[in-house]
Amino acid sequence: MNAKRCLDCDVVLGLNNCYPSHFKHSKYVCKKCQNKRDNSRPCRKKYLKEYTKNHYIENRETYRKKQKQWKLANPKMRCQQAAKRRAAKLQRTPEWSDLDQIKQIYADCPDNLAVDHIIPMQGKFVSGLHVPENLQYLDLPTNSAKHNYFDCFDYLEWVNNGGLENRLTTPYLTPHLRLKIA
Ligand SMILES: [Zn+2]
């Protein structure tokens, strides 16, 4: 059997990027393109908005319960979403940022560590990006001690010594943190 492709963008369709009903009924359009199609038809857009709203109101308790369960089951995803919101608010996510890789870094974060932005998004003199290359794992006390501190000369030295490539195993620490930990 030939792989099914989206009519609009030519992406190979799997169950994850295709509405199940579309998969069954062989209307080969991916979720993204279907959304685009819906949005380009004001009447359809309005109908869907209304439908979603009513469905939510009618099943509010079920939605709440599901959301609560999901939150308990996915603490790392919640961290990732919070960071995403924070980055969006600060406009620190460039178009080329690899969002899947970011998700993976959050998902792979060991339980006793937290994901840290190496160059803080809200430093005193700098503002780092929400990109995989700017993420590392820090234990919680170090993370809160680091806060938005940043030393550009120290960082450059770390980068020149291959720090970026090994950041997930050997995180970047500013001098004051290295002293604190030693
Ligand atoms: Zn498509």
Key terms:
elongated; 182 residues; two-stranded antiparallel sheet; 2 strands; mainly alpha; binds zinc ion
How would you describe this structure to a colleague?
- This protein is mainly alpha-helical.
- Helices cover 51% and strands 5% of the residues.
- The chain is built from 9 helices and 2 strands, in the order H-H-H-H-H-H-E-E-H-H-H.
- It has a two-stranded antiparallel ribbon with strand order 1-2.
- Helix 5 packs across helix 6 (99-107).
- The chain starts with 19 loop residues before the first helix and ends with a helix.
- The model has no long low-confidence stretch (mean pLDDT 88).
- Bound molecules: zinc ion.
In the predicted model, the low-confidence regions spanning at least 5 consecutive residues are none
Q: Beta-strand level of the residues, as a percent range?
A: 5-15%
Mean pLDDT: 88
Radius of gyration, whole Å: 22 Å
H/E topology pattern = HHHHHHEEHHH
Tally of separate domains: 2
Strand order of the largest sheet: 1-2
Number of strands: 2
* N-C termini distance: 61 Å
The hetero compounds bound to this protein are: zinc ion
* Number of contiguous helices: 9
Class derived from helix and strand content: mainly alpha
Helical content stands at 40-55%
- Strand count, sense and closure of the main sheet? 2 strands, antiparallel
Which overall shape is indicated by the principal axes computed on the Cα atoms? elongated
